[in-house]
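Researcher: We're teaching a course module on how sequence relates to structure. For the next exercise, students receive a sequence and then see the predicted structure as tokens, so they can try to spot secondary structure elements on their own. Here is the exercise chain.
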Amino acid sequence: GGSGGNYIEAIIPAPGATYSYSVGTGGTAGTAGTSGQAGGAGGSGFVIVEEYYNTVQNTAIAQNQNVLPTQTRFTTGSGTYTPPAGVTYIRVRMTGGGGGGGGSANLSNNNGGVGGTGAATTFGTSLLTSNGGTGGGAVGSSANGGTGGSFTINSPAYGFGVNGNGGASSIYGPTGTTAAPAGAPGFAGGAGIGLL
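Model: And here is the predicted structure for the students to work with:
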């Protein structure tokens, strides 16, 4: 199967005026070969921004109440993010697109398609980059799972990242009739299953 895109969790202190973002799409599914199944498409990435405030507010219920964090989510496309007024830092969680699963075929044809690579998710142009996972190999050729995506965190952001897991190797099934699994958001596409 295809591999998962990388996951990042980072803090950006004293955020700037605006940040560009782009959510990575999942890799395409490998096509079915003779007597085989198509792989699953990779899931899209995402960006979740949590905004934290170091201010208090007065309400009818309580005086000097801390302002609770807010959250902005991006699950497709690209654009510009503007932090709300009064934000002192933001926490960004994001992942690149998952790789598509490779298609399968029977042993005598070996003509399943390779899964596509997931696209990178970015925040702040080159501030945070979560690369997509690679597609899985076709059954009967490389048949190996894709390798996980990598990540980059540049100053002034700080945090951690987890490389995407590699996809499982493709397998041969006794009938080839099992449906290929679809990719979950931000994770890998499944491999096709082929005849012996």
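Model: If you want an answer key for the exercise: Residues 91 and 101 are 31 Å apart (CA to CA). Residues 172-187, 190-196 have pLDDT under 50 and may be disordered.
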